[in-house]
Write a structure and sequence with these properties.
Elements: H1 3-11, E1 28-29, E2 32-36, E3 40-45, H2 53-66, E4 68-73, H3 79-87, E5 91-97, H4 105-110, H5 142-155, E6 163-167, H6 201-211, H7 225-248, E7 252-257, H8 261-268, E8 279-282, H9 293-307, E9 313-319, H10 325-337, E10 342-346, H11 353-363
Parallel strand pairs: 3-4, 3-10, 4-5, 5-6, 6-7, 7-8, 8-9, 9-10
Antiparallel strand pairs: 1-2
Helix pairs in contact: 2-3, 2-11, 5-7, 9-10, 10-11
The structure holds zinc ion (ZN).
Zinc ion binds near residues 138, 198, 202 and 203.
Length: about 375
Amino acid sequence: MNRRAFLSAAASGTFGLGVLGPAVLARSLPGVPGVREDFAGWLWIGGRPEKSASEWRSLFSLLGDSGFRGVLVGRAFDPEMADAAHRAGLEYHRWMWILNRAGDTWARENHPEWFTVSRNGDSTLDTPPYVDYYRWVCPSRAPVREHLRRLISEASREPDLDGIHLDYIRYCDVILPRGLWDRYDLVQDRELPEFDFCYCEVCREQFEAQTGRDPLALEDPTADEEWARFRWDSVTRVVAELSETARASDKSISAAVFATPAEARRLVRQAWDEWPVDRLFPMLYHPAYGEDVPWIGRSVVEGVEALRGTGVELNAGLYVPALNPEELASAVRVVRRSGAAGFSLFDLNPLTEEHIRAVRSVLRETTDRFPALSPS
Ligand SMILES: [Zn+2]
């Protein structure tokens, strides 16, 4: 039985674990409850840079030797890269944009009605908020979900792919993280209509059928709990369907999400502690929140607590451009002490060999370096 089948048997109660769930199976570092012995690293690799097969082999072998578990690769499946990863003992996952479909020419040309509509009535297809590539499809629409399932199903056909990694699996930010307000010259102390989605015909009809109310006629749509829940559930339904699709091809499924369950619900309508996935990668990019390394630890604790008993692994996403090697080592140590299953680095481009060596030293640290659990 492979690990995935084992976890799924554990989750379904085959092993009599009952409500304790598979989370209790994770082994702690000896003498340090809560700090996982199998704590490991991941790396996001986007469309650049290009590398030769031998360059990938040497990078991946360094990562494998340093205690990394896998890579999340945002490009079409590359058999040479996958082979190099597997030879180094790394998992190879496909990193895919889901609800932001700026790059989906077919959808843009054939289905303009799929794109989300703001409370002001503007479509993200014609009037993308914040930046030109913010063009989002509506998760309430069945044909949209069918299109997304087909994309995941096609990607999952590669036998040498280990997993699918979902990104942009959310609504457009109704509120940007605090550290980004200045960049866009905005004060988002409330939900502004041009950033609030989705008020398309299908969303309005579905919400009215459920509650008897039209979201456009709500007295204060920003404070309406049912309207918030409707949108959290819309995203969760997409996740559940894509998860089922990936797992049908024996692929694991994961997602990049916002910092904590509370922040993710509030900023981008992700109720990620309710998602049926194998692992989650909260993007704890501290400069975007105007925060520091201790905030990363506090966010991990919050996420791990929210996922307790679900068997879903939390891996903290770290923003490499804002961390020199020493700071990165300190961030990884905080993440490990806070009970995460691992961490992931964003991304390959700013990553130096010194960063990787600094991370390796933390992954090799033993019990005496972890005297206390609560993050500073
Ligand atoms: Zn809609």
